[in-house]
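Lecture notes, structural biology module. Today: joint structure prediction for complexes of two components.
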Amino acid sequence: MAARIRIRGGRLVDPRHGVDAQRDLYLADGRVVAVGAAPEGFAADRTIEAAGLVVAPGLVDLAARLREPGFEYKATLESEMLAAVAGGVTSLACPPDTDPPLDEPGLVEMLTRRARSLNLARVYPVGALTAKLEGERLTEMAELAEHGCVAFSQANAPITDTQVLWRALQYAATFGFAVWLRPEDAHLARNGVAHDGAFATRLGLPGIPAIAETVAVGTILELVRATGTRVHLCRLSSADGVALVRAAKRAGLPVTCDVAVHHLHLSDLDIGYFDSHARVVPPFRGGRDRDALRAGVADGTIDAVCSDHTPVDEDAKQTPFGESEPGATGLELLLPLALKWGEEAHLPLAAALAAVTGSPARVLGIDGGHLGVGAPGDVCVFDPAAHFRVAAGTLRSQGKNTPYLGYELAGVVRYTLVRGDVRYEAAGERG
Amino acid sequence: MSANPQLDANGALAHLLTLEGLPRAIILHILDTAASFVSVAEREVKKVPLLRGISVFNLFFESSTRTRTTFEIAAKRLSADVINLNIGTSSTSKGESLLDTVDNLSAMQADMFVVRHAQSGAAHLIARHAGAHQHVINAGDGRHAHPTQGLLDAYTIRHYKKDFTALSVAIVGDILHSRVARSLVHALNILGTPDVRVVGPQTLLPAGVESLGVRVFHDMRKGLAGADVVVMLRLQNERMRGPLLPSAQEFNKYYGLTPDKLALARPDAIVMHPGPMNRGVEIDSAVADGAQSVILPQVTFGIAVRMAVMSILGGS
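The predicted structure, tokenised, for the full assembly:
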């Protein structure tokens, strides 16, 4: 039974309802019951003093790999769910690239049951679009949806056979399911490990050209036009990709898209002297691409900013760049990096938070990411002025792999509430 | 990660990983030192005691008899102990990581690693991991760098042309996959060469290659016009037919160095090739064995240059 909690004296920022003011927040029975004045007869079991802190909706992350089943040596559900709440993330979608992939109802059910028993963040599994993610046979999407899959995806294994992709979109559209696709032409991206540009040329790294993304976006958009399927494009990386989506949205196609938060800050130059922590999928591209991604989030072309959390064990990064396993840990960096972007773009705090709360909740189709009366009691209370140093020891995720190691970032989570209960509280905090 | 990975705190050479970003003075010092070693090869006793007691490990993750041999000769002429390890793919199949291999050899008191690896950046990784007293020489990493080859090419050019600041140098062929081309371009730019050209079809030129400081030519006849130095690159067998090129014959016709194409360069132009050559593909025998060819002297100078690099790194 969730306690009655008052969060007192904080700066309440609720982008969905246009609130940015000092307001108290009242939670009971797992939900928001009042904003501002206490409901009549409300006797708090606990009061959290939030003076000087921001009270925001819990973060909604559209891509966090929990590594279960199959990759428990990289991370466990428990370690990553703890990382999520430590990062203020209260809802997350996990891609199907587990081992085995999430292509059978039993696997999905096991994952959701395990996640529920940990009672930390809410987990929304994204089911595999094709069996074993092999791009050949459709999965039992309707059955998977009944077991909790919120969408269907190929994760980082794009379908190469366009006929299969077309049929998969048609089938998903039959049931009204959303399909999440990371746009990449596998042939054009083949063997590449870094953005195909002057910097990869200097380092002698095989390139992945930006056209690997735009060719795939073009194909997917044509298929959306033909099938009417709701498609969410994952992890845009190029300026031209953003422009294509902008035009498609203007034309009224039912598409949404996201970007990984590190792509708003870093470019191919950050590979430096072959830093394998900067090996991510899709690759960091040029400065012009990064600027277009930032502008795309600001003008709403890009609907959501996600962590693309990918814990990788250090051994798999201690190899030459091209042999290293791609991906960066991100659950605990999503908030500070989103804040950093917002500040650099001179946006109000609410705009930066919208990209990691209300907007991704809308993509996911869940009630969440806001703090109106009746909303789920998912809250992130953070200190926007406190700094922390990104270090292996300060990250709760089992993955310590991030190009941000050693950076000082602002934005420290003090409390995370899920379903109206405090699920994380920073050391030394006691409201 | 921001500090230059191949210089120590005093700006002296700690490793040789790439020529990019090396101070001109260090490159000139290596070339001058190499000049003093060329004569060693002509002596009856081809040995100097500069590296006595030093252990040099030739760590070849990618097979190469030629480069490994020249490093071995260079180390032996400096009186170092040389241990050759042809690791190929066997260690990875045994599951040992690159850095585990290096740790094991470090425990055997290795002073210097000469590293060749198919992956760009492998030498950087080893240098980052190596002990403070150890030195890493990159003997070729992926497409990235082959600095001793770049230095021996620079040495050869200086030997025949004396001054870099008035030269036109054309590098022809598979630039995309070539660490030799990248290292030579860096060397030439650092040494003040005003006109560095790369010549090849679009499929063999990497993205944004102009940013390395070169002029791009697709027509070899235009690319060779007035050149003082013509550097031909090796075309790997497996790339002669496929998505990059239709055939070795067509490549030879448009990008192979034939006597009639060489005639477009300056009459005193020299012809270089890092070896091994594909005669009849990137270079015709008449040119390879002709009066303008300096391909064999390159090999001789290569030993002196590698001696210079080793003695500078190990003798400090």
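Point to remember: DSSP finds twelve helices and 20 strands in chain A.
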